[in-house]
Automatic annotation (TrEMBL):
PROSITE patterns: N6_MTASE
MF GO annotations: DNA binding; N-methyltransferase activity; site-specific DNA-methyltransferase (adenine-specific) activity
Annotated protein name in UniProt: site-specific DNA-methyltransferase (adenine-specific)
Broad class of enzyme this protein falls into: transferase
Any Pfam family: HsdM_N
Keyword entries, A-Z: Methyltransferase, Restriction system, S-adenosyl-L-methionine, Transferase
Residue span, N6 adenine-specific DNA methyltransferase N-terminal domain: 6-128
Phylogenetic classification of the source organism: Archaea, Methanobacteriati, Methanobacteriota, Methanomada group, Methanococci
Domain DNA methylase adenine-specific: start-end pairs: 145-471
Superkingdom of origin organism: Archaea
Gene3D superfamilies: 1.20.1260.30, Vaccinia Virus protein VP39
Length: 508
């Protein structure tokens, strides 16, 4: 969605932080986020003030009233040392006090700290951000969509794994999952382990795109849509989308701040992101304990939890986080609510009582619609563990489950994850899923097929695709032994002949 030149500028920004000793990617992205956020505030505030000049009824009061020296356009032209001191002593205190009293912004930004180590890095970072935002590289204007894409691309370079098995979900996988779940305007959408808010941003953009006139959608050179604003939505619907539909939580405070800024940069001015450990904290995500229409998630896996700390809402006797989060998600969904969640393969066939119990819940108390098996390299370089996507609807009954064997996600499956076409099986998965009930054949040798519920039940609720996929082995035709033996003797004679010729040459 971004031009190559723009990506190059963003990569340059990352390199400047690395070379100046900020080796922790989370610290780097947090500091970049503050700068982008400050730049955006000045641009948007100026736009609103200009609009007020032509329409006094808007009655807009500048965020910078009484703090004009906090505008990006004012301090970004300062000399390096002066700018460095100004950011530390004036801008950051202003930034932390900017939110409304007791707002989520105020709560989570109060511990924000300025950690850029020297004036030269600050000056270079400010210069690069000016280029990124102001230049014509931004496809003509700096709308929310482009700025959101800039931020998403910044986050895509966040090559770090968190504690307790947290792995950042590749954005193209998130996009595919969102298209499968198909969230709609008015639905409440939650990610109980939201990280940088990738699923929530994806759901927001998907709803805007689905509600934009075709004439108002532009496409970049790679065919990706941008500049869509959801013009078919009413003012009330747009406000609902921005304020009452998207909810998330994360227990890492830095991640919470990054998620907040990610959503704000995408145009969601009052994000509902909470700092909490969902497995411990019984409080729900909104004031009325409303359950959700849609849950999109990639919970931490490979972790365990101390039983003493767990909330007593769980019925499954386990300390494995991937199983506990599945029960949590089930509890958070409304009846009829839809969920797509990424799980490690062990959830699909694990033999413990807890593993079987959670699969029974998914198949007996939900309509388990799909199991999409993903190749083991999708989460590299973090981990090579195999994973799958489960899609289910709470309260329905499972009659048959659609399996898909994804082998290609458009990137190499090694640690480098080099771009191939960025798509692989993705388009076919979404298309085949939407048309799954129209497929005439049910060939278990193909990439996708149905398996009846009763068959899965007989197999101890095993959801591994290898349990049901038929592998077609091809018999190779080998030469007869006497022919192979003759070929070896001929080669041996040829080698002896070459040695004899070499000896003759050496004696000359």
């Amino acid at each position: 969605m971004l031009k190559r030149e723009l990506k190059s500028e963003i990569n340059k920004l990352w390199e400047k932080f690395w070379s100046n000793g900020i080796s922790n990617p989370l610290t780097a992205i947090e500091q970049m986020s503050y700068l982008l956020f400050l730049k955006r505030m000045d641009v948007e505030d100026t736009k609103k003030l200009n609009a007020t000049k032509y329409n006094y009824k808007l009655n807009y009061i500048s965020l910078f009233k009484g703090h004009e020296n906090c505008r990006w356009s004012k301090w970004s032209t300062m000399e390096g040392k002066e700018m460095f001191e100004h950011i530390d002593t004036v801008i950051f205190p202003f930034l932390k006090e900017l939110g409304k009293s007791n707002s989520l912004y105020e709560i989570y930004m109060k511990d924000a700290t300025f950690a850029i180590p020297n004036a030269s890095l600050l000056v270079e970072a400010v210069s690069i951000i000016n280029n990124i935002i102001d230049d014509s590289l931004c496809i003509g204007n700096t709308n929310y969509e482009v700025k959101g894409d800039i931020y998403e691309y910044l986050l895509s370079e966040l090559n770090t794994a968190g504690k307790n098995g947290q792995f950042r979900t590749p954005r193209h996988i998130i996009k595919m999952i969102t298209e499968i779940v198909d969230p709609q305007i008015g639905e409440t959408i939650c990610d109980p382990t939201c990280g940088t808010a990738g699923f929530l941003v994806s759901a927001y953009k998907y709803i805007l795109l689905q509600n934009s006139s075709k004439d108002n959608i532009k496409y970049d050179e790679e065919g990706n849509p941008f500049d869509y604003i959801g013009d078919k939505l009413s003012e009330n619907e747009l406000m609902t989308l921005k304020t009452k539909m998207l909810y998330g939580s994360e227990f890492d405070q830095t991640m919470v701040r990054i998620a907040l800024m990610n959503l704000i940069i995408h145009g969601i001015e009052s994000p509902n992101i909470f700092r909490k450990n969902s497995l411990v904290d019984r409080n729900d995500y909104n004031e009325n304990n409303i359950k959700y229409d849609v849950i999109l998630a990639n919970p931490p896996f490979k972790g365990t939890f101390d039983k003493k700390e767990l909330s007593n809402r769980f019925t499954i006797n386990t300390t494995k986080t991937e199983l506990l989060f599945l029960e949590l998600i089930y509890n958070l969904l409304k009846d009829g609510g839809r969920c797509a969640v990424i799980v490690p393969d062990g959830v699909l066939f694990g033999s413990s009582r807890a593993h079987k119990k959670i699969r029974e819940i998914l198949l007996n108390e939900c309509g388990l619609e799909a199991v999409i098996s993903m190749p083991s390299g999708v989460f590299k370089p973090y981990t090579g563990v195999s994973t799958a996507i489960l899609y289910f609807i709470k309260g329905e009954s499972t009659k048959k489950v659609w399996f898909y064997d994804m082998t290609d996600d458009g990137y190499t499956l090694d640690d480098k994850r080099n771009f191939i076409d960025g798509n692989g099986d993705m388009t076919d998965i979404v298309k085949s899923f939407r048309e799954r009930y129209n497929q005439e054949e049910n060939d278990r040798k193909s990439k996708h097929f149905f398996v009846p519920f009763e068959e899965i039940k007989k197999n101890n609720y095993d959801l591994s695709i290898l349990k049901y996929k038929e592998i077609e082995y091809q018999i190779s035709n080998f030469d007869k032994p006497e022919i192979i033996l003759k070929r070896i003797k001929d080669l041996d004679n040829e080698i002896k002949k070459n040695f004899e010729e070499l000896n003759v040459l050496m004696k000359k």
